Every structure is written in structure tokens, then in C-alpha cells.
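Q: C-alpha cells for this one, please.
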Amino acid sequence: MSDAAFPDAAATWNQRYGGEAYFFGREPNDYLRAKAALLRPGGRVLCVADGEGRNSVWLARQGFEVQAFDVADVAVVKARRLAADAGVAVEHHVAGFDDWKWQPAAYDAVVAIFIQFADPAMRARQFTQMQGALKPGGLLVLQGYTPRQLELKTGGPGVLSHLYTAATLREAFEAMDIVELVEYEAVLDEGTRHRGLSALAGLVARKR
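A: Here is the predicted structure, written as C-alpha cells:
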């Protein structure tokens, strides 16, 4: 994915994911961990822009059938290593949003955690693609930063147009049933770049 602010996402993320350490750590996102009980046990899950695999691998450890993709091939190598270390099978692929082979009504859940390196036009495509990939009754679990994060500066893209508000998300997913939509602040401890008090939005929505 790319835009004027982030013209070469693959190069940017390959650089960040270089080295042995896991950029956002090996543990799953807290919001995902808290909402995973809402997902259909053993269901088929797609993790988008999954990075080094912390969320997809954790979901596989919980018994879900998981596919995941990320634009950075360096990250996908590390995600596959993380899955092997955990003794679970995840289908990890190198792909961006616009070249992933989207299948309609293919997943019981789609997980989108901090996928905010996209301008509004690309974000609209992302949201449409994710909704279309869900089976009827399937759940979308999404977390991102809100505009107050520009003041806190504890992670995120640092570009206002890339951030979420509850109103923006409610409008974007008006065709779905909102299970939860919250703006809140919490302390994150996710690797070296999501650390400290953070301004967050969380969404769980069900496809009709």
C-alpha cells in the first residue's frame, strides 16, 4: 500500500522489520485478545497487514484456521518462523491489500490491527474488501489510533487523515451490525514502537 505520506510501504516496512527482534513484539494485540471469545470457535480467520505474525500465530494457537498477509516479505519470513516456534500452522503470504486475492464470503472473521498506513481513498477500498470477505454473520475486529494520538506520540503513522474516529468507523461500516465501537485510552506495551499511553479506537462489527 502507498500514498503521498508513505510512497513505498514495502520498503518502509522491510526496513523496520529488519533484524532479529520483533518490531511490535511476539504477543497479540490486547484488543484482539479481549475480543477473540466472540469469534466462532475453530472458524476461518484472515489477518490483514499482519506484520511479523504476532496476531495470526496467537489465533492459530487458540484453534482458529488462519490466513494472513503482509506487504513486507521480511515480516512474513519472521511470521513463518514465529508460527514454527509455536508449533502451529498459519498460511502466511506476501501481498498488499490491492493485490491480495480477495475471496467473497470466505471468512468467519477478519482481523485488522493498526492498518493505518493508508490514505482515505485506500482505506475505503480496504474496508470494502474486508466486509466482502466475511461470511454472513462473520465478525470484523479492528483497532487503530484516534487523532489524539498525534499529541501522545506513542505510536502510529502521525498523519491525521490516516487516523480513526468512532464517527468515521460507524459511517464506514453502516452496512454491518455494530457489536462494539469505542474510543478510549490505554497503555500499550507492544514491542518498541507501540509503547505508553495511547488514544485508541476499537470496533467489532457483524456482517448481516
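A few notes: DSSP finds seven helices and seven strands in the chain. The domain at 9-96+104-207 is CATH 3.40.50.150 (Rossmann fold).
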